[in-house]
Amino acid sequence: MGKNSVSEQTPGTGLLLPSREALLWAESDLAFVVEAGRLAEKAGYDSVWVGDSLLARPRGEPLTLLAALAAATTRVTLGTAVLLPLLRHPVSLAHVVATLDRVAEGRIILGIGPGAELPGTHAELAALGAPSDRRVSAILSAIERCRRLQPLPFRRGGPPIWLGGSGPRMLRTAGATFDGWLPFSPTPADYGSGLRAVREAAEGAGRAPDSVAAGVYLTVAVADDPRQAVNEMDAYMRAYYGVPAEVMARAQACHAGTLESASEWFAAYRAAGARHLVVRLARPGLSDYNETIPQILSAAHGR
Length: 303
Fold this sequence. Notes:
Layout: E1 12-16, H1 19-25, H2 30-43, E2 47-50, H3 62-72, E3 77-83, H4 90-103, E4 108-112, H5 119-127, H6 135-149, E5 161-163, H7 168-177, E6 180-181, H8 188-204, E7 213-222, H9 226-241, H10 245-248, E8 253-257, H11 259-271, E9 276-281, H12 289-300
Parallel strand pairs: 1-2, 1-9, 2-3, 3-4, 4-5, 5-6, 6-7, 7-8, 7-9
């Protein structure tokens, strides 16, 4: 990995920027997202990330946003959590990513995934005329084409690619062929068992087990009153996904509580082997969002 990118060996903390939230609560003001990224770098975050969706959960286009963030920042790694490669033609994707990697001087990480097994995923792929069955095979083929076709990026071989997902095939593939793993693992125990499978697959493929970057995607709501945090998490998930928080918590890592309890929760994932936390702040309405960014970082650092 490049000298300016997140190291798989060094503990770090990233912020998932509010690209969807800007459409929900900030009248599509994507300048808010770019400013949040600039403030995250100033606060000391190691990375900033943006998500992807066309119709299922609309937001700003992630690679365009990363280009803007590359211009607004100088140090942080810029990542996708996660990019949906099937929404783009592999040749066009390779062209854009190589250009972005040049603009960002090697600060890019591509987190990728097949998309959740939800009606919205099938609908947005259908809108592009793309099949939605066998999505894992399709994204692996698309990424392989990107690697072969990519114009000259900043780094030899292009940006590191981290794979999201926790199914048996995804775990094996992450360990055998990808640069990192970035799951939703709903509990630290789930994360630990998944990471063991990733490392076993890496070793089986002749790779050093710890050469695969160990990321994790965590959603947190914080307030002085834990009950307020629980209510905020539920309101956030209902607006973002259209379902209650208790439903999303079965598949995603979610915590609602005080900053102190959030710190303990982050530490549990680090103890399970996570090296890079990608944190999403569940804040309905984006109230005091920028003021809360440094507090979340302190909690992730155990301070």
